[in-house]
Amino acid sequence: MRLLDVNAMLDREKDIQRARPSAEVLKELDHKSASYAILSHRWGAEVSYEEVTGLMKMDEGDREEVRHRDGYKKIIRSCQQAMRDGHGLLWVDTCCINKQSSAELSEAINSMYQWYRDAQVCYAYLHDLDESAFPARPDHSKFNSSNGWPEWFLRGWTLQELISPKEVQFFNKDWVSIGDKSSLALRLEKITQIPYGVLKDGLVSSSPSVAQIMSWAAARKTTRVEDRAYSLLGLFGVSMPMLYGEGEKAFRRLQLEIIRESNDYSIFAWNPTVKAPRYGSVLADDPSYFGTCHNIQKVESDAFVDYLIKYIEKHELGNLGNESKLRKAAQQLSVFVATNAGIQICLPVMRIPHPDSPPVFRAILACSDNYGNLITLDLASRGSSFDRAFSQGEVAKTPPEFMALYLTHHQVADPWHCGLTLIDTSVSYHGFVPCGTFPRGTTGNVITLSSRADLIVTVYVNYSTQSRFAVGLGKYFGREWVHVICDEQDDHKPWLSFAERAYDAMWNASAQHAERMPNSPSENFIKHAHLPRSIWAATVVWGKPGRYNSNVTVDIKQCPGCCVASHRWTINSAPQRDPDGTSQRAWQGGTACMERREQFEDIRKHFYAIVNMHQPTGTEDVRSHGVQ
Length: 628
Hints:
By secondary structure, the protein is an alpha+beta fold. The radius of gyration is 30 Å and the shape is globular. The longest helix has 20 residues, at 594-613. The strands form four sheets. It has a seven-stranded mixed β-sheet. Strands 8, 9, 10, 11, 12, 13 and 14 form a seven-stranded antiparallel β-sheet that branches. Strands 17-15-23-22-21-24 form a six-stranded mixed β-sheet, with no helix packed on it. The chain is built from 18 helices and 24 strands.
């Protein structure tokens, strides 16, 4: 482990003009025997290992440019704080790792959790916080891009840097103390969803499940997609080589490493309350899939049978039979193995009758929610292995039987998948910003719906007008659909709460939404919802310019006066206009709200009657001029 010599660093900075070019500011030491402080921060304009070690060999212009960077000033202030606290050594990730060496970088990433754990103190520097206290509630006016909290709380790497050290001291942008982890544990629990006991006493004291730990990382972000996995290695006590460029495969590798070290079934429990899990691999694509798993608990194998008996009684699945035989079969739960054929596992399963499809089972996992309800997983047979699936069918009313299975752990090509390009740049002109997607994260503006039944909800919020809306992009048995729901923004309820409610409402009506979509790909489709206390509406337009992918445009438009139903139209080359200024294009082939349409027809009849009353005798009726 390479550490900054605090005294040498400050002495060099104090008299930079006279400092010797050969003066060393870094030392190689064993982290188990060294006493050191450590820095946790959000990266910005930083200083590298080469720049810190070669600073005195630079010409004056280059040296001054380095010294004026925020990253360099951050190192100096960290050293000053360490000296005040009596620490002679300091570790900073930006300058204590030679990132030109892939071997050194890999070693550092695999060891980082231990390095933070063994530090005497961790200084958490919040570069975007002015006050000397955390916000009492989300402040979107100041922290708009990080869900209302300082950005430090949204980064992937800072999760382990909060949990691992025994002592964490927080500082604002001016290095004014905010408090320490112990005294701020209740506030930190509210911000991070990490339980109070874990913040106070670490992971060992609480023994959280795999799904719980994953849920703490669900909304966090990293610059490199691979780091969403690498930043979690220490929290699960596993190691693996770094392969930057592998993309989302890194998270799959992480889950397989966890399976090799643990028999925690909650790793399969992602999206336990979501009705539209994606098909295929039983492993999640990224941590966001665990966003609703804060309360998923592991059930030990010796207690699992008791939970299973209650499950059978609650769901009236018949007579249990020989309980001792069941307990003997449950002993197989303690082992499951990742192989090239799949994850070899033994689970209690129940058959879901599907006469015209391969066998579908509902497996019961050895994990539960906070009410003690066991989590289940639908599995569909695919050759010699089983895919994660989704079934609306009811299980046969017979007790579950333990079955040896191979579960698919790699995502195969899905012939049902589709891509929708989300075009939402215009909403920013009206003060709306995208908060995130539910139930899983997305990359870029292409939303991939990779199952026969799927749904992604994107939430947009205008904090000035306290309004928000959710856009749903869904698929129902191969048919795409879109929908939009508006709501008043409530600072006391995070956007994720609104996203979940919108998701449930849309999913429960997914069949109806899909039925309203046009049958012809040449037709466009529009849905809109009225924004509360305004004359504006959130509008979603679906179109299919190509054979495979669709475009979905989100915009804010002046509300036409009715936000009850959808509109559909086709484009005419020469649209006509009525005397009242209404374009026929708006109604061509329409399925608009009948209530508004009847009102429109009544108004138009009155308009024609008034016009014709003032026409000279013998003149043509106004409707004879081609107006229909």
